[in-house]
Design brief:
- With 253 residues, this protein is mainly α.
- The chain has eleven helices and no strands.
- The protein starts with a helix and ends with a helix.
Length: 253
């Protein structure tokens, strides 16, 4: 294949991202400017209802992220260091990631039915559990990836020199796995922050997050200007978090 044709073919994914992500972002920003400009953004940020919903969403996202980390990190450690053989590791990884292959709404409906039986439907706890279930692979895989790259001889040397297991974990394993942990934390937090389906289906009155608010502004109240401004602010926050991670923490992930 000629170099020109190869360059054109390889540029198609970039063009796809430009059209499906950046162009709507630009249109959203243009809509917010056309309908009010900087004053509209100031009014959104000064609206106590919007701010309280954003803070509540950030709290839910933080709780989801911490719970997901507490579940994913031990599982990733066990698979990386305790399981012998690539085949056994792959089987466990597949077991954790298979739910990602099932339709998202089907999984949410299944959880909703189970939670209805045990009294967790339409509760804050049920909503967080549902989000942890949804985002567990996004935390597990980057952490496992960094655990796998840690040279076992470093852990063996620490053990030989008399380090206790918790000392080895804190002084060697966790610092070396920090890029993967940071990647998982940012992924889960940002997706939880803007999640709409799980809070809407499992959260009941606790599910009114910023994703739900943006949905209402666009499709219920037809207030495209404020919806665009709010969505642009949330997207800008997400891009800023990704930029900080790539610049300062993503070198080893």
């Amino acid at each position: 294949m000629k170099k020109g044709a190869l360059s054109l073919l390889s540029s198609l994914p970039l063009l796809y991202v430009l059209v499906t992500f950046y162009l709507p972002l630009i249109l959203m920003f243009a809509e917010s400017l056309r309908s009010g400009g900087p004053a509209l953004y100031a009014s959104v940020l000064a609206n106590t209802d919007y701010v309280s919903i954003m803070l509540y969403s950030a709290g839910v996202a933080l709780a989801t992220t911490l719970a997901t980390l507490l579940v994913a990190a031990p599982a990733a450690y066990y698979i990386a260091f305790m399981v012998e053989g690539d085949e056994a590791k792959n089987r466990l990884l597949v077991a954790f990631t298979v739910p990602m292959l099932v339709n998202f709404l089907l999984r949410a409906y299944a959880l909703m039915n189970i939670f209805s039986l045990i009294g967790l439907a339409n509760t804050l706890t049920g909503m967080v559990i549902g989000m942890v279930y949804e985002y567990l692979p996004y935390m597990l895989l980057p952490i496992y990836s960094t655990f796998e790259r840690i040279e076992k001889r470093l852990l063996e040397a620490a053990e030989t020199l008399g380090a206790r297991p918790w000392q080895t974990t804190i002084r060697i394993t966790l610092p070396l796995a920090a890029p993967g942990i940071a990647a998982g934390v940012i992924l889960v937090f940002l997706m939880s922050l803007t999640e709409f389906v799980v809070p809407a289906m499992l959260g009941g009155v606790y599910g009114y997050t910023v994703g739900y608010l943006i949905w209402d502004l666009f499709l219920k109240y037809r207030n495209w200007a404020v919806g665009s401004a709010l969505a642009f602010l949330v997207t800008l926050t997400s891009l800023a978090a990704v930029y900080v991670y790539v610049k300062y923490g993503g070198g080893g992930a």
